[in-house]
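Tokens as discussed.
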């Protein structure tokens, strides 16, 4: 099973993302259906509107990134200064280590291997990842439309997979899965918007360049439990290296990002999501480590909803109920 999840990661991640988006957008389709809009037409309208919104956001982000790219030479100077300082420390350490290492024997031949081009290697190493993202982005709208338009047919066909004596329990399980995933997606979206807005206002107040770009990246990664707080420091700190010459603004950025993460993790997420997604800290940490190792960054994002669904299934299967109790202990 683990091998299948690893080798079929592109397919499974695409499917899970489409399912989460379907749970998020299904209330809108239901609302359109109440206004006598056919479900297939309503699903098409919702999917096309979502694509347009994402394209607008992507175009806005691309413009900000392009502006940041034009100013990148100015950011390289402080980064090179930091890198050179670290490199000197490492060279000093290596020189001390080399003193206790045996020197080359007389007549020993040393072969120097030329390093390949770093930019070319970086581009080639990312081609596979870009191809996977393109495939996922192509299939998600179709999966999303079919899931929204044929919701009742899919639900009925799913129930037919189980014996008649088990369908009541299966219906209860699927109903609870629906509540868990919908509350998680909607709650996480609200928390993400709050984090992005709060970060944006803070970056504007301190005069940081590209405040929206830094707030968007920092706010989104801050949603990742535990690891997100550290990841949220990097965008504003890197941008601030060009502007700030003292350490106080960087301390303020770290403190503020940590404060926002603590507020989101201890107040916003429990209030908006925690009453449905009941996972203890140990189970959540193990889930993040496992799914992050298996699927990389997408695994970190999808670890919580996947583990929450596993807990719901364990709660409704008698032999797995001890596992469900452990996950929420």
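Sequence:
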């Amino acid at each position: 099973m683990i091998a299948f999840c690893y080798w079929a990661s592109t397919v499974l991640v695409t499917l899970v993302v489409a399912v989460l988006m379907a749970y998020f957008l299904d209330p809108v389709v239901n609302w359109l259906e109440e206004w006598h809009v056919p479900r297939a037409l309503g699903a098409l309208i919702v999917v096309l509107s979502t694509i347009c919104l994402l394209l607008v956001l992507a175009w806005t982000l691309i413009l900000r990134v392009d502006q940041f790219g034009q100013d990148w030479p100015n950011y390289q100077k402080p980064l090179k200064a930091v890198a050179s300082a670290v490199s000197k420390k490492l060279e000093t350490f290596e020189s001390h280590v080399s003193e206790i290492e045996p020197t080359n024997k007389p007549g020993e031949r040393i072969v120097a291997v030329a390093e390949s081009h770093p930019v070319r290697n970086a581009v080639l190493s990312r081609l596979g990842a870009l191809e996977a993202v393109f495939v996922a982005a192509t299939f998600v709208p179709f999966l999303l439309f079919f899931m929204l338009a044929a919701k009742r047919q899919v639900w009925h066909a799913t129930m037919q997979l189980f014996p008649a004596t088990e369908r009541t329990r299966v219906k209860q399980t699927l109903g609870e899965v629906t509540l868990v995933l919908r509350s998680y997606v909607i709650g996480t979206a609200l928390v993400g918007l709050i984090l992005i807005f709060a970060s944006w206002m803070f970056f504007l107040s301190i005069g940081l360049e590209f405040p929206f770009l830094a707030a968007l990246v920092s706010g989104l990664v801050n949603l990742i439990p535990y690891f997100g707080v550290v990841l949220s420091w990097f965008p504003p700190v890197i941008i601030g290296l060009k502007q700030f010459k003292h350490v106080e603004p960087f301390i303020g950025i770290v403190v503020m990002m940590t404060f926002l993460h603590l507020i989101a993790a201890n107040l916003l997420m429990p209030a908006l999501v925690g009453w449905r997604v009941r996972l203890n800290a140990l189970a959540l940490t193990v889930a993040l480590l496992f799914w992050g190792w298996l699927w990389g960054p997408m695994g970190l994002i999808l670890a919580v909803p996947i583990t929450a669904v596993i807990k719901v299934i364990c709660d409704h299967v008698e032999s797995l109920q001890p596992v469900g109790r452990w996950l929420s202990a």
